[in-house]
């Protein structure tokens, strides 16, 4: 169950003192709750304040202002970011993507995956600790819970108390607030796929479509269940990333580590007592690091699979160290190597550049460069030439031969364009149908195109021609497509 | 044990269904699909939604078979539940908790 880092469990040694106080938690803590997978001890994370808690709240604000706010941003009279599944068009600010642009989505996902690998190998589970929706919503739901039910011990007491008017009122208020936030989250989520202004209007008029209603409730329920009930169990039992992140770890990866050399032997003492005289290390064994942990582990036992890298224990421990007048950082961000050779910050930074991070960075850079290049070279006009299967070739007046094609034209820009169709490649070849076509913004249309060739130029069989579709405005859009012109073979 | 099994069956299937939904409906337009030779008349939203549950169902069926076949002959010959998880009244319930 440990991560892949070898020797990931620094032993605390035989000098380890009495079990942490957290083990002797309130009676309510001992109440075994039937969890999803195993008999789960309900975890009541204690509120924590400090540098990393502020950083996490900053991440919560950043991601959630982005998530809840983005669908309301307008761009050219439409929603700036809209994945219009009904029309099969994705709008992202000035860009319109079609299913044909799948490659960009693929590149984006590959880049996201590789950057996750890079961040993990450099700084551990940054994603889990600060940016993962599971962490973010759990943080918000915990905040609501704390505001309504109180902090750790008050919540544990409330859960243990018999059902009464106060308990019912508090629980109802909490679940009401959770449900409201979850529904708003579901509504916002669906608002990325259906224009959110329209969606809001029909929600107010109680005329939401059946599938919209369903998906709002589905996503809302998932948010409520994951952030309200499942919490750390999602990370421990359901998250594939949590399972394989250890593979990206090595001994120079930033982890949250307890400095056993400095902290052990642990034991309580008065604030004025001299730990050396008592034969103790700096750890006062207060158990705060365990109480604040959202996954309920004891970081002093070393790096564990359950650790999501949220740094709550660092904040908690630093507060205690301050109170005791000891230096901060008994639990801190460090690497295994830096812990072993006490090299501190220089030892950590000095090993940032190593084969693993170089390889990840190179792959990431290559993917990003490829994606950006492809995006810049992308012509928002697509043309498919399909030969009309019905008629092979037709003799028309003036001794000309005629082939019929279907031109599938896609205008992927957001403005209307007039395009001129031209043909070249054979002497005297010309367009016999209307050469100018009109295209509405972000639309696809098929046009029949008749192409004629003087009989003198026809050699029989198939001859290559080139069809050009070019915009009649300053946009410079032009696409050239190859096609074949068929003519009957001369009789022998 | 039962909830654990249900989660094992439904959760991986859900993840796979999400990926499948994106890939399949990027490549195929619901408006181009045919059902028993007839064009599908339902709205795209309906097809996307129904498609998602189809993928989820197929994934769940596969997970179910994996779970089902995972048991070794040794386990099939005996009660698969650890003694502590056996139903109340089972004579072998209070056996050695460490022995499955």
Task: Give an overview of the whole structure.
- The complex is a heterodimer of chains A (492) and B (100).
- With 492 residues, chain A is an alpha+beta fold.
- Chain A has 18 helices and 18 strands.
- In chain A, the strands form six sheets. In chain A, strands 10, 11, 12, 14 and 16 form a five-stranded antiparallel beta sheet that branches. In chain A, strands 15-13-17-18 form a four-stranded antiparallel beta sheet, with no helix packed on it.
- In chain A, a hairpin with a 4-residue loop joins strand 1 and strand 2.
- The longest helix of chain A is centred in the middle third of the chain and has 26 residues.
- Chain A is elongated.
- Chain B is mainly alpha-helical and 100 residues long.
- Chain B has one domain.
- Chain B has a two-stranded antiparallel sheet with strand order 1-2.
- The radius of gyration of chain B is 21 Å and the shape is elongated.
- The two termini of chain B are 13 Å apart.
- The C terminus of chain B is likely disordered.
């Amino acid at each position: 169950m440990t991560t892949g880092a070898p020797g990931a469990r620094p032993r605390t040694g035989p000098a380890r003192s009495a079990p942490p106080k957290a083990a002797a938690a309130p009676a309510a803590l001992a109440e075994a709750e039937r969890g999803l997978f195993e008999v789960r001890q309900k975890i009541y994370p204690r509120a924590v304040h400090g540098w990393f808690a502020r950083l996490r709240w900053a991440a919560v604000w950043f991601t959630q202002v982005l998530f809840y706010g983005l669908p309301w941003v307008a761009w050219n009279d439409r929603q700036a970011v809209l994945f219009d599944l009904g029309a099969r068009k994705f709008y992202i600010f000035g860009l319109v993507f079609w299913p044909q642009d799948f490659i960009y989505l693929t590149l984006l996902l590959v880049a996201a995956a590789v950057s996750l690998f890079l961040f993990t190998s450099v700084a551990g589970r940054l994603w889990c600790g600060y940016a993962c929706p599971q962490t973010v919503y759990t943080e918000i739901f915990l905040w609501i819970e704390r505001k309504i039910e109180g902090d750790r011990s008050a919540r544990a007491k409330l859960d243990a108390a018999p059902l009464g008017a106060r308990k019912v009122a508090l629980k109802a208020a909490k679940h009401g607030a959770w449900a409201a936030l979850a529904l708003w989250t579901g509504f916002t989520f669906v608002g990325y796929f259906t224009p959110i202004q329209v969606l809001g209007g029909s929600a107010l008029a109680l005329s939401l479509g059946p599938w919209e209603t369903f998906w709002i409730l589905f996503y809302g329920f998932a948010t409520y269940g994951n952030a309200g009930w499942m919490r750390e169990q999602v990370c421990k039992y359901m998250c594939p990333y949590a399972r394989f992140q250890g593979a990206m770890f090595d001994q120079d990866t930033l982890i949250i580590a307890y400095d056993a050399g400095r902290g052990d032997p642990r034991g309580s003492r008065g604030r004025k007592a001299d730990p050396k005289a008592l034969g103790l290390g700096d750890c006062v064994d207060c158990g705060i690091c365990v109480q604040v942990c959202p996954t309920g582990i004891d970081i002093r036992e070393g790096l564990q699979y359950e650790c999501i890298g949220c740094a709550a224990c660092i904040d908690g421990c630093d507060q205690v160290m301050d109170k005791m007048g000891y230096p901060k950082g008994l639990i801190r961000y460090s690497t295994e190597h830096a812990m072993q050779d006490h090299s501190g910050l220089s030892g950590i930074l000095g090993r940032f550049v190593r084969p693993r991070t170089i390889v990840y960075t190179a792959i990431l850079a290559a993917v990003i460069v490829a994606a950006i290049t492809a995006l810049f070279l992308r012509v928002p006009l697509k043309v498919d030439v399909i030969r009309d299967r019905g008629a092979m070739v037709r003799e028309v007046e003036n001794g000309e031969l005629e082939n019929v094609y279907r031109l599938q034209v896609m205008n992927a820009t957001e403005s209307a364009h007039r395009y001129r169709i031209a043909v070249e490649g054979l002497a005297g070849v010309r367009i016999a149908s209307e050469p100018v076509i009109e295209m509405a913004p972000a639309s696809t249309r098929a046009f029949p195109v008749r192409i004629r060739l003087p009989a003198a130029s026809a050699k029989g069989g198939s001859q290559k021609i080139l069809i050009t579709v070019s915009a009649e405005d300053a946009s410079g859009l032009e696409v050239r497509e190859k096609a074949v012109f068929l003519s009957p073979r001369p009789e022998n | 044990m039962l909830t654990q099994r249900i989660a094992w069956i439904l959760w991986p299937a859900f993840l796979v269904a999400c990926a499948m939904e994106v890939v399949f409906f990027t490549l195929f337009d619901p408006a181009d699909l045919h059902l028993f030779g007839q064009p599908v008349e339902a709205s795209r939203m309906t097809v996307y939604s129904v498609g998602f549950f189809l993928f989820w169902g197929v994934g769940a069926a596969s997970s179910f078979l994996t779970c089902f076949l995972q048991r070794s002959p040794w386990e099939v010959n005996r009660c698969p539940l650890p003694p502590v998880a056996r139903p109340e009244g089972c004579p072998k319930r209070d056996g050695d908790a460490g022995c499955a």
